[in-house]
Amino acid sequence: MSRPLRIEIESGIYHVTSRGWERRVIVADDRDRREWLKLLDRVARRYGWRFFAWMLMDNHFHLFLKTPSADLSAGMHDLNSGYATWFNRRHGRSGSLYQGRFKAILVEDESYAGTLSRYIHLNPFRAKMVKRPEDHVWGSYRHFLNSRGAPEWLDWQVVLDEIGKNRSRSRQAYRRFVEQGIHEKTSSPFRDVVEKVLLGSEEWVERMRRVLGEEGPDANVPLRGQLAWRPSMEEIEIEAAKEFGVKIGVLQAKRVRNNEARAAALCLIRRLTSVPAAQLADRYGGVSQAAISKAVQRTEVRCDDESAWRRRLVRLEKKLMTRG
Question: 245: domain CATH number?
Answer without folding.
Answer: 1.10.1750.10
